[in-house]
Amino acid sequence: MASQTRATALISLLVALGGFLMGFDASVISGVVGFIETEFELTKIELGWSVASLTLTATLAMMVAGPLSDRLGRRPVLQIAAAMFAVSAIASALAPDFVTLVIARMLGGFGVGAALIIAPMYIAEIAPAEQRGKLVSFNQLNIVIGISAAFFSNYLILKLGSSEADWAVALQFDEWAWRWMLGVEALPAVLYLVALLFVPESPRWLAMRERNDEALTVLTKVSATPEADLESVKKALAEEAELFNASFIELFRPAMRLVLTIGVSVAILQQLSGINAVFFYAPMIFEQSGIGTDASFMQAVLVGLVNLGFTILAMALIDKLGRRPLLGTGLAGIAICMLLLAYGFGSASYSFKDADLAELPEGVDVAMIESVQDKVWNSDVAFREAVTGLLGESVYKEHESALVSLAIDANPTLILFGILGFVASFAMSLGPIMWVLFSELFPNRLRGLAISFVGLINSAVSFVVQLVFPWELEVLGNAGTFFVFGVVALFGFFLMMQILPETKGRSLEELEHELLKA
Fold first, then answer.
1. What's the chain's Rg over C-alpha atoms?
2. Which of 67, 211, 358, 495 yields a CA-CA distance of 20 to 30 A from 266?
């Protein structure tokens, strides 16, 4: 029994390395946006596009990843994803212009979409019911480890850029900082490709293909009752085959109404909570609180560590407390923290004092700033518009962090607390629970198709959030943007407490019978 538990955990960890690459690939761009905005002279929408382009192709990948894995197998699709991660990292690092960078990032998006769908699906299909929540959460754990690694890697490369060490100078960490940030992902991508060679195919997929001997061989390694588990899977597949052949239309039949409503609602809520706006633009958000570039990268590392710590806590509790209590508590926390952020930024004011003039960065016209000395702006939008009008858009973009740091009068500790509290609440709820629910709610034969569909919706909403977030900050301001996220989370709390059943501790076949009957 112990050896089978260890084997299941090891296989799940290897597969979940795809989550690490997904988290790293998605979040590493947070350290890059400030560099490429000035180097390529991007508008706010172009800046959003540099971030969201990966999610666009991830969305497309989700449309085909599930059905493709039903045809080819779970493992081959994950191997293709690993190769795409590696190629994308190298191409992004070498990109000579904005268009090439976007194309390279879009290639990585195909890997993200496939890994995001197939890794938790595979783990759910190999894990016993009593451990499924914890093991599927390995994927979310690796996503947050990847996010943390990306934040730390970005900070380390930024510090190496200011280092005078001969090797750092020779490798041009200063001039090529953002290229190094993007390129280092190639190393874990190659490692994942090798690790997948030691992973067996999903026993449920093998049973779907009537390769029962191979399915039994795999189940013998991971289950104490392999014959009974195989018979249970075969029975469920046979019952479904008697009813219909899987097609997209079947997702919308009346029996699927409850599970599809829950799946779509959770998929939308996860992204409209603002999580990817925070993860993909963390240094930019912290710079808006006036702490400067280096400190903003360091606080982004804190975001990753808090995310990691509370994800581990969620994994420890998810099969004890259940999905519903964690999700409700997390959504309430998200709403409170987002509204706190709206208050923190909304109460800030901006003004240049006499002492600030001597600290203006080189390249900023002191006389222009002198002309508005002691003038007070009560919002970041008004401040940005006024100073951009004085200095010009290119100069303001280049020195935005320094100018905001000098002018702002806010409570950066309150803002840091709000962001870290938000990340902790998300990591305890929508982060790991969404993918656990996706792997549990849908019937066996429709699981690949259904997860692709709700994953598509999740990714599409994520794309929109990432694309418009810089524009939102520019037009609505920090306070208005976070207020919207807070209201959405509050609505989501009441909705989920109304429709979400508890799924812990029940087999996939049992859940299928009960939920579809309901």
1. 24
2. 67
